[in-house]
Automatic annotation (TrEMBL), chain A:
<dbReference type="GO" id="GO:0030488">
    <property type="term" value="P:tRNA methylation"/>
</dbReference>
<dbReference type="InterPro" id="IPR005651">
    <property type="entry name" value="Trm112-like"/>
</dbReference>
<comment type="subunit">
    <text>Interacts with TRM9.</text>
</comment>
<protein>
    <submittedName>
        <fullName>Trm112p-domain-containing protein</fullName>
    </submittedName>
</protein>
<comment type="similarity">
    <text>Belongs to the TRM112 family.</text>
</comment>
<dbReference type="GO" id="GO:0070476">
    <property type="term" value="P:rRNA (guanine-N7)-methylation"/>
</dbReference>
<dbReference type="InterPro" id="IPR039127">
    <property type="entry name" value="Trm112"/>
</dbReference>
<dbReference type="Pfam" id="PF03966">
    <property type="entry name" value="Trm112p"/>
</dbReference>
<dbReference type="GO" id="GO:0046982">
    <property type="term" value="F:protein heterodimerization activity"/>
</dbReference>
Automatic annotation (TrEMBL), chain B:
<keyword id="KW-0808">Transferase</keyword>
<dbReference type="GO" id="GO:0030488">
    <property type="term" value="P:tRNA methylation"/>
</dbReference>
<dbReference type="InterPro" id="IPR041698">
    <property type="entry name" value="Methyltransf_25"/>
</dbReference>
<dbReference type="GO" id="GO:0000049">
    <property type="term" value="F:tRNA binding"/>
</dbReference>
<feature type="domain" description="Methyltransferase">
    <location>
        <begin position="58"/>
        <end position="138"/>
    </location>
</feature>
<dbReference type="InterPro" id="IPR051422">
    <property type="entry name" value="AlkB_tRNA_MeTrf/Diox"/>
</dbReference>
<protein>
    <submittedName>
        <fullName>S-adenosyl-L-methionine-dependent methyltransferase</fullName>
    </submittedName>
</protein>
<dbReference type="GO" id="GO:0005634">
    <property type="term" value="C:nucleus"/>
</dbReference>
<dbReference type="GO" id="GO:0106335">
    <property type="term" value="F:tRNA (5-carboxymethyluridine(34)-5-O)-methyltransferase activity"/>
</dbReference>
Length: 123, 284
């Protein structure tokens, strides 16, 4: 699956594409929503490592505007539930992710992103 | 039918070699292979149990994803993302343990991630499928790049020349006197072999006689590099040095000056015909 937890970690790795290669931009996506178990301990631990702007931007590309622009300092249950939904319950099933720098297209098929490159593209 | 392990010599383009002798095979045997690989090994389960809530990890060469649901006693406290070169194994990994998992199609030699984005990484029974020393080293470097330079932890397992007595495999290369000597010398490389996988095709007709079922079994020879004693440690040291990381023993960690980036082998060992090494990255 490509959920936003994974999207927040992926970057373009085409040879020579070393800057502005994150976050990848979603293109022509089909999404599915699936409930996942809420785990506040995981979210509190993961939160400091999230690239926040990338997450907010990606969620908006998928039509979800529930996250605040700035990461809140108070981690109440409402916020953690919103974060949980955005990170773990929105599944990108089909479509692609495009590098903002070199425009390389990484296809997503049946929920699996294809990050393979041809030999001459590998950095 | 020849089903013993036998020595081979790698030739030609290593990428094409691995495509033919590793990737294509796993795509074909995925279902059968996965049905035989469901039990997590104890040291790996222990490693994952020891990690704090909120950590995200990479399983580089996840196969059927059997480590993705761990730790079983604290479900959902970690997220392990599985990467593999076999799309058919990933389709199995995608829903392992009756939950949706995060999986990515990719090569363990590549680096499709933000640097240091993961808290931990595991690579289990994967690096031994790479056909040259340089490529195995590149895979270790990718793994070290994937984890946090401040606190990242990693666990690597590879197949050992030294085989379990209980192992059903016959290893002719390791039994030749000359080979055993080679294995005991630290600087000598391990052994390149083909390890057969006998695929039993499900019979198309339920009433097919036993002989016919036998005849439909197909043998696939998977490439493995069987590691010699000390070779995995050596590989990690070379990878770390290429990355300008200091390799410091556990005992000497406290004596390192400020402003140094390094890696420490927390534990090394042999378990069930495999060598393993657990690593920690740090910055003083």
């Amino acid at each position: 699956m490509v959920r936003l937890i994974t999207h927040n970690l992926l970057a373009c790795h085409v040879r020579g594409c070393n800057s502005n290669n994150f976050p990848l931009q979603f293109q022509d996506v089909q999404i599915g929503l699936r409930e996942a178990e809420f785990n506040p301990d995981f979210l509190r631990g993961f939160l400091p490592k999230i690239e926040w702007n990338a997450l907010v931007g990606a969620a908006r590309q998928l039509g979800d505007t529930s996250l605040p622009e700035e990461q809140p300092s108070m981690l109440d249950d409402d916020f953690l539930k919103t974060l949980h939904h955005v990170l773990l319950e929105i599944h990108v099933e089909e479509g692609a992710m495009v590098c903002p720098n070199c425009k390389h297209v990484y296809p997503i098929s049946n929920g699996i992103p294809n990050m393979l490159l041809a030999e001459h593209e590998i950095g | 039918m020849p089903t013993d392990v036998r020595a081979v010599s790698v030739s030609g383009n290593p990428e094409e070699y691995e495509d033919e002798h590793v990737h294509a095979i796993y795509d074909e045997i995925a279902g059968h292979f996965s049905s035989t690989r469901y039990k997590p090994w104890p040291i790996i389960a222990q490693f994952l149990s020891s990690l704090p809530a909120g950590w995200v990890g990479l399983d580089s060469g996840t196969g059927n994803g059997k480590y993705l649901p761990l730790p079983l006693d604290r479900p959902g406290q970690l997220w392990t993302i599985g990467l593999d070169r076999s799309i058919n194994l990933l389709r199995i990994a995608q829903t392992v343990g009756q939950h949706y998992r995060e999986v990515v199609l990719g090569n363990v030699l590549d680096f499709p991630w933000r640097y240091g984005a993961f808290d931990y990484a595991i690579s289990i029974a994967t690096i031994h499928h790479l056909s040259t020393h340089e490529r195995r080293k590149a895979a270790v470097k990718s793994l070290l790049h994937s984890i946090s330079p401040n606190h990242g932890r990693a666990l690597i397992y590879v197949w050992a020349v030294e085989q379990d007595n209980l192992s059903k495999r016959v290893i002719p290369v390791a039994q030749q006197a000359g080979e055993i000597q080679t294995v005991k010398q630290k600087d000598k490389p391990g052994v390149d072999v083909f390890v057969p996988w006998v695929l039993k095709e499900p019979s198309s007709k339920p009433d097919t006689p036993a002989q016919a079922t036998q005849a439909s079994a197909k043998v696939f020879n998977r490439f493995y590099h069987m590691f010699a004693a000390g070779e995995l440690e050596q590989l990690v040291t070379e990878a770390a040095e290429d990355m300008k990381l200091q390799v410091v023993s556990k005992q000497l960690r406290t004596t390192v000056a400020a402003g140094v980036s390094g890696v420490t082998a927390v534990q090394t060992g042999w378990e069930r015909s495999n060598y393993y090494i657990e690593l920690e990255r740090w910055r003083t």
